[in-house]
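Sat 14:20. Reprocessing the chain from the morning session after the first attempt stalled halfway. Input below, unchanged.
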Amino acid sequence: MKRILLSKVSLGVLSLVSPAFAADLPYAKAPSAATTVYDWTGVYVGAFGGGGFGNHNVNNATGQAVPFADFTANYSSTGGIAGGEIGYNWQSGSFVAGVEGNLFWSGIKGNDAAQFNAGAFPGVGAVDADNLRWGGTLLARAGYAIDRWMFFFEGGYAFGSIQHTNTPPVGLVDRFNVQANGLTGGGGVAYAITNNVIGKFEYRYTNFNGYSRPNPPNGQIPYTTETTYSVVTLGLDFKFGVPVVAKY
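Finished this time. Tokens:
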């Protein structure tokens, strides 16, 4: 009987002491789950397409057609473009730096026939037209990344082939190609749809150096031109490798 009573007392004491003793023991905290952050570093290739708007100024010896204007004749052009690109991005923290080269076909064309026929440009003796046939850019890029989103600005060198046509009411049509070059800049936003596929939206402004026609073979007055383009495109890129960084 005494043994049974002693056993019950011992068990009761142990039940009281055990929680207090356990509270003093060290314990290990369960590790938190790691989140993944997209890494933009890597080589990519892609394709893009969109549309553009051109602005063209023609100046000749007759001077400005409109007081205080910087042109003898002015006209616009519109059309689509499509092309391909290759580039490389490098990311450090939220900052992304990159380089890119691209080539594109263009159907951006226009003329001043409507203004010419309406007599809007006094002293202009022929209809002028421009057709941007193809082009390309070499760009440097700086961006800010928020996981799979990247907002960026870019700028660099642009080149292209412009076909200019000067058509008088009577006589020879003067058509020639100009290998234009100049500066370009713009910006956009990109989103990593998957670890390898990236979609993006871009706007780019290009200012080509002017060209001159000092001795037109069709007997027209010598003239010079200035041309700028604004282009908006959507694109898809494929980035090689699948770098995704774990963040705790």
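The chain has a mean pLDDT of 87.
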